[in-house]
Design a protein that fits this description.
Number of helices of chain A: 0
Strand content of chain A: over 45%
Structural class of chain B: mainly beta
Strand content of chain B: over 45%
Oligomer: heterodimer
Order of helices and strands of chain B: EEEEEEEEEEE
Helix content of chain B: under 10%
Number of helices of chain B: 0
Shape of chain B: globular
Largest sheet of chain B: 7 strands, mixed
Order of helices and strands of chain A: EEEEEEEEEEE
Largest interface: A-B, 27 and 29 residues
Amino acid sequence: QQQVKQSPQSLIVQKGGISIINCAYENTAFDYFPWYQQFPGKGPALLIAIRPDVSEKKEGRFTISFNKSAKQFSLHIMDSQPGDSATYFCAASKEGSTLGRLYFGRGTQLTVWP
Amino acid sequence: NAGVTQTPKFQVLKTGQSMTLQCAQDMNHNSMYWYRQDPGMGLRLIYYSASEGTTDKGEVPNGYNVSRLNKREFSLRLESAAPSQTSVYFCAGDSTGSGNTIYFGEGSWLTVV
């Protein structure tokens, strides 16, 4: 059973546009929701993360919106740039769990056209 | 990705051959992980180690074994490689053990023919 569902699988956006990637989760025990960014040939790297005590977190052009009742969260990339072209993964975990592991979505390949 | 080093970077194996992927970290991570990444499947956890001396199965452990040799090193072994194990493998570490911030290595590209 997939714990975190991510959409769309691929996304093409023009330079300057807004990129939106959505994720949904099942387990209400999850309390940490990071996004990872992966460039070709590299490992994923933490981009931004949110906890459910806030509904939005913004870091530069990247914003996470969180809807606890709907069990959904999304990544918004404002003023998208060609350098943002990468694969993005959402994830979820239960902090403090002795197992302490992340459950990843299947990824979204973002292409930003100049 | 600094701090988590994987070797080899690329490897081609014949079906039935065995090999070990090595991973070492210098970030004092307590927890370490092995993931595989396949197109359209995202990152799937193979095995993890919450602390030195302990290992546990993840989502897709079949065909793999792991060893947490010490706090720094966590190796992944394929005893008898199969074409279905063609994938990109990532080692990762997490200092908190809570999955709060996972640092990934740069990946090992494995092809089984």
